[in-house]
Amino acid sequence: MIHSLFLINCSGDIFLEKHWKSVVSQSVCDYFFEAQEKAIDVENVPPVISTPHHYLISIYRDKIFFVSVIQTEVPPLFVIEFLHRVADTFQDYFGECSETAIKDNVVIVYELLEEMLDNGFPLATESNILKELIKPPTILRSVVNSITGSSNVGDTLPTGQLSNIPWRRAGVKYTNNEAYFDVIEEIDAIIDKSGSTVFAEIQGVIDSCIKLSGMPDLSLSFMNPRLLDDVSFHPCIRFKRWESERVLSFIPPDGNFRLISYRVSSQNLVAIPVYVKHMISFKENSSSGRFDVTIGPKQNMGKTVEGVVMTVHMPKAVLNMSLSATQGSYTFDPVTKVLTWDVGKITPQKLPNLKGIVNLQSGAPKPEENPSLNIQFKIQQLAISGLKVNRLDMYGEKYKPFKGVKYITKAGKFQVRT
Amino acid sequence: MQTDNLELKKLVYLYLMNYAKSQPDMAIMAVNTFVKDCEDPNPLIRALAVRTMGCIRVDKITEYLCEPLRKCLKDEDPYVRKTAAVCVAKLHDINAQLVEDQGFLDTLKDLISDSNPMVVANAVAALSEIAESHPSSNLLDLNPQSINKLLTALNECTEWGQIFILDCLANYMPKDDREAQSICERVTPRLSHANSAVVLSAVKVLMKFMEMLSKDLDYYGTLLKKLAPPLVTLLSAEPELQYVALRNINLIVQKRPEILKHEMKVFFVKYNDPIYVKLEKLDIMIRLASQANIAQVLAELKEYATEVDVDFVRKAVRAIGRCAIKVEQSAERCVSTLLDLIQTKVNYVVQEAIVVIKDIFRKYPNKYESVIATLCENLDSLDEPEARAAMIWIVGEYAERIDNADELLESFLEGFHDESTQVQLQLLTAIVKLFLKKPTETQELVQQVLSLATQDSDNPDLRDRGYIYWRLLSTDPVAAKEVVLAEKPLISEETDLIEPTLLDELICHIGTLASVYHKPPGAFVEGGRGVVHKSLPPRTGSSESAESPDTAPAGVPAADQPSVIPTQGDLLGDLLNLDLGPPVSGPPVATSSVQMGAVDLLGGGLDSLMGGGSGGFAPAPGTAVPSNTGAPLGSGLGDLFDLTGGVGTLSGSYVAPKTVWLPAMKAKGLEISGTFSRQVGSISMDLVLTNKALQVMSDFAIQFNRNSFGLAPAAPLQVHAPLAPNQSVEISLPLNTVGSVMKMDPLNNLQVAVKNNIDVFYFSTLYPLHILFVEDGKMERQMFLATWKDIPNENETQFQIKDCSLNADSVSSKLQGSNIFTIAKRNVEGQDMLYQSLKLTNGIWVLAELRIQPSNPSFTLSLKCRAPEVSQYVYQAYETILKN
Lengths: 418, 884
Hints:
The complex is a heterodimer.
Chain A: E1 2-9, E2 14-19, H1 29-39, E3 48-50, E4 55-61, E5 64-70, H2 76-94, H3 99-104, H4 106-116, E6 117-118, E7 121-122, H5 127-133, H6 139-148, E8 178-191, E9 197-211, E10 217-222, E11 231-233, H7 239-245, E12 247-250, E13 255-264, E14 274-282, E15 288-297, E16 306-313, E17 318-325, E18 329-333, E19 338-344, E20 353-360, E21 373-380, E22 389-395, E23 402-416
Chain B: H1 6-19, H2 24-27, H3 31-37, H4 43-55, H5 59-73, H6 78-94, H7 96-101, H8 104-111, H9 117-133, H10 144-156, H11 159-169, H12 177-187, H13 196-210, H14 218-234, H15 239-255, H16 275-288, H17 294-304, H18 310-326, H19 331-343, H20 347-363, H21 372-377, H22 385-397, H23 405-413, H24 421-437, H25 443-455, H26 460-475, H27 477-484, H28 500-508, H29 513-517, H30 543-547, H31 573-577, H32 597-614, H33 632-638, E1 659-662, E2 670-679, E3 682-691, E4 701-704, E5 712-713, E6 728-736, E7 749-755, E8 760-766, H34 781-790, E9 796-801, H35 808-817, E10 821-828, E11 831-839, E12 845-852, E13 859-865, H36 871-882
Helix pairs in contact in B: 1-4, 3-4, 4-5, 4-6, 5-6, 6-9, 8-9, 9-10, 9-11, 10-11, 11-13, 12-13, 13-14, 15-16, 15-28, 16-18, 17-18, 18-19, 18-20, 19-20, 20-22, 22-24, 23-24, 24-25, 24-26, 24-27, 25-26, 26-27
């Protein structure tokens, strides 16, 4: 089981450690630093490292390495999932999962870690239960606490943990009963040089924000549930009901949570909302090149494509770029060689274009690699797969809740090869 | 500590946990508070107290923990019970003996049937952790009832609990395919869980139990289809999860390629994937490459070859070569892609391309020589040894088609001493090839290289190869040509597949570290403890066949499982002395004109082998086994047609089902199972040799170590054709009893060495004694009485044969089939008394009295023999015969 946890920042300082069994010396992290050095890029540190006596399983989140030490054969996915859960909890409690936030709330962090894991076994990881045990810090509460001397720790037993619905706390009360669902779809795609789609799929999630009193039993149905053939559910969803009727039936946790995530992979269902015309070339022996990129809307179902940002990792030999954009602004970082073009909204009448000259290191050979263009965009009020919520019914409680559904489509890993 | 403020209490506890170790005497003062808190009305505090106590690793405190822990394990509140369950594991870690003595393990086992799923999950987790340090104990002894409980708890417990339960389920061995299917059905919903660890654990259970399902079953196909989407979904998660998932998918794709064959595209690489994900994706792409999708794959690979990361580009180029070798139809396209890449003149791409083109030549000889010219243009840019060696190999192999081959090779020769060994060896071979192909022009060159290799080099490999070529060339150039230019076997399709036996084991470990490292857990788990070998269950066609003894689940360790002899051991002295050349009868003939040291070795080995067989031998001192081993030589065979002895049982003696003697894991892929039989007077060893490795096996030979009854093979082990991978062959090896005698312990222990082209393997097995019962073992009545009286009473041993429901007549006819002869039958006070005799191959007589009570299924067997050591084994033989 999980033995210890070290939090390490980007400059290699261990700023927090927690041991659930006997104490493991910090020196075990040296193996991690070694691997980190070898990997050069922070993202490339292998997640599983073996050392003579331990295994180090790490994740990299928000510029912090969460390095866990294990001694026996433990499923690595279990450890990785747990570490992500820890990071999620910090995010949830402190609003951000950063070194400063953790250092500012070090007492709560230790209390949380102690509640989340017992002897390496996960104890309470649901945010609903944790919040009942340890209240998240708010400015108001810290003021009140410092005056009254009361604490952040709840003194009630987390009843939810014992019931058959461990994810929901008991005795929830709201004056306004609301249930919101955000259908968020991300398009992952690889577009090749000629503009045809090499690979495309939709990663969708339904994030919910449920503020309902008592023990509501919800059922959510879709207009076209057939779209969802590859789905991962929150534990609250009754699987049998989905299998037989294609209805999501569940008693929700209180607050924000991810209800389902799904994947639509058949290519004819995945519409590609933008196209990119590009011309990037480097001249032989002249230490310069040309750059010309235009972005235009494609199948966007009549909605506006907005929030368009293009990032390009230029080859190492590129020294600088002098470009002009018809819309938005661009920056080029000569150290990381990343070109970022913040386009904004695409108007079909006047297509945004960025073009100009690339300056190369003089004398360097013509770069071999073709930079990939990474595109981000957003389309409001549209689920690109066509998924539509039909209705939401509530059983078990008398009041009438306010319901809302929001759709949004975003670019996920959307790459255009040149 | 006695505060009511929960936060303060928690912080004090936290402090205690951290500092108790450094001040144990101070910590002990806290015990009272802990004990008091364990009885607090608030379950939260009870649980907190028991939890904290377990974390204090001070021996003195541990003693006081037992009572509160026992109470908490039976607490009315499930929250306390589940915390206490984990505490048992903590305590076990500190003091294992204490946990066993206090009976906590049994309490923990009871918790598996707890009403609360969370408690069940924690109990399972704690037991699994404890079991890991006690590999032999069957703490998690699962039966259908407990499995049912676990499956019910599975639906209701937390995600982490589900992982523990699924991992535990994976260790269970269903009794038939129906049970396997029903478990699979109940596990399948877990594939849609949001937690990827749950998903992967569920995949493990399904992959394992699927092995038992018949392939014709509709359900089998449905299950295959259901497995693909969750695996693909794992790839949309964070990169760390992707990495672990990909390592596991790599295994799954090798075991069951059909699952993901249509999902090629999800493995396409995105440029901002971390490098460790990229490399894994590439590996899986090649494994999935087939004729149907090769065009797509090649286009992708070509794209990757222009990426920034050098490691990745190299692997991509290599992948193109592997595609060519794997999918024959695509070879041409692959070669042209590689040529395109060579045109880019990027140094490392060119070098990598040349290395893979060499492999393509080895797979498809004489097909793509047209590209050689292009390759030669890039000769000067090669600076890596592997690429240089590859290029030299190509030049040597196709020397006759390259006009300036001699010049090219000569240019390499200039810096001979600065090259790496790999290049030097290759250059030597290439020049010899060239010489054999164009002898007139290259005499000087070959002499130069031979002298460089033999005189100026410190490398023994290089020198030896140099000398071999030199002598070959000077003795018989024609033979040299045959040797050096012999047709080479084509390289196999996939050289990097995991051995099937290892793969099967790894499939049982999906989702664990073993699956990430692709090594069996024994290879890296600390100290080797806690490693239980896991194997896939055998497929059972139907439930009926599952009940027959042959298909008993492989995972159940048989009581008399043969042990594999470690390669080094004193006992093996004899075995090792016997060289394992194929035991040809007659003196070895040196046929080869090449003088090889090996011939002498072989001869020497055989001499001692023959000597052992023909020469007289003294029995080892102190043994009771008479030394007239030569006598029964005739007797065994003499009575060939005389065996019926009045009873019409021609069936021969009882033959036990075959058991695995030598598992493939221990013998580089060769699995041997077998049994012994006695048919009409001759003993034979019935073997099944199975090749579970990836290469062809040939040149089999077998040899026995000296044993108690002089058993020895009567004929060489004849495997006519080489054994192809995944093929098995059945052989009946006749045995005789004229071999050397040495008393073994146990008496019927037989140590065997088997040789093939790969290695020599040793194992030992126990043979049933009844194969040594000869057909003329019937004693005259008078003789029997006299002998019975003559043998002193202390030589008499009594045994009980339990649970045998046969009557006296069927017993005696059954035993007669195995050459145990009934001489007289008496009825004394309602009991049947059978008087029997049998004779062993070495002339030892054994007399028996068998008492059968009609109402009692237990028989009493009294055995009298001049060599009482054998009695026990005779009894075992009785039992085996009567119970089968």
